[in-house]
Amino acid sequence: MQRLLYEKAVELGVIVKLNTRVASIRQSEAGGPEVVCKDDTIISGDLVVGADGLWSRCRESLLKATDHPLPTGDLAYRITLTLDQIKDEDLRKFVSEPTLHFWIGPGAHAVGYSMKSGTMYNLVVGDDLPPEVSRRPGSTEEMRVLFDGWDPLLTRMLGCVETVDKWKLMHRAELPSWTNSAKNFVLIGDSCHPMLPYLAQGANSSIEDGAVLGKVLSYVKTRQQLPKAVELFEKLRKSRGEKVARETFHQRHDFHMEDGPEQEERDKIFASQLGKNEPEVKFPSRWNCPEVQPWLYGYDADKEVEAAMKEWPISS
Ligand SMILES: Cc1cc2nc3c(=O)[nH]c(=O)nc-3n(C[C@H](O)[C@H](O)[C@H](O)COP(=O)(O)OP(=O)(O)OC[C@H]3O[C@@H](n4cnc5c(N)ncnc54)[C@H](O)[C@@H]3O)c2cc1C
Fold it and tell me: Ligand 1, residues 206, 251, 252: which to mutate, most atoms within 8 A of Cβ?
């Protein structure tokens, strides 16, 4: 996916400069945006798109203030298992099925799906990393203890794991705006709407941002139309990006419930839908909830922009 995006960008004439850290974004005296790099080079253009992720410098430039990511209190164990690491025949059959599996329980959940003829598992538990650490090797033993007593299939699978990475899951407060007042500098992706990875939407919604921005810009014919296009991009994307991010926290709530009346109610809903092809009621897992799934996973960036252009044409 990354290579495809890269190759397409180069084909379209994009110049990629690696190993070039951005220090800040500023406005030139003439009024255009400028990227100031750590090596003191300055790149100017009509529009700057800050897509520098969770630890964004661009965000700090937009806010004109220091602004660090905030811990969510969760961390993810990220594991990749290949079939040859698994000797147990039942497990081999289970992990090679092209099916998404969830295990949920108090304070944690695990998700597993097959890819590249192997299997990847993200296992999520309460945060116990020091504040300054974002990622480091985790202990497989510590992870096994956390899931002790869960589904034997899961614990047998964890028995096959040799190494595991721990990721601290961070988030950010919602911004008043993703753009500057001149509408020539815009943030996209994790720099403005990071989220928990519980709906597999972080990279996806970042790509949606890129698709919408690209499509909106394709309508721009003059420099004067650019601010309106940037405004339209923000109008289309900010509410959705932030809604998706909030939904990941709702998903955490519903997956990680401690034992008690609320958890019992949730489990009754799960049980009531067993054996049905699709859940027919509001469902605790948004992955196939009939209320959330359609807007979350059914988004079409092209259609969104085409409809918006009819309502708010940027040429008017
Ligand atoms: C455990 C885990 C599991 C996840 N699972 C999924 C999933 O299943 N599906 C999904 O869609 N998402 C998932 N995500 C989220 C996804 O990884 C992010 O949302 C996505 O990478 C954000 O894309 P981005 O382009 O905004 O930022 P990033 O991917 O972080 O890219 C930012 C880029 O900017 C560069 N950069 C940063 N600062 C500077 C600077 N000062 N100068 C120059 N360059 C700079 C970085 O080197 C990087 O290349 C997961 C995340 C985690 C932690």
Answer: 206
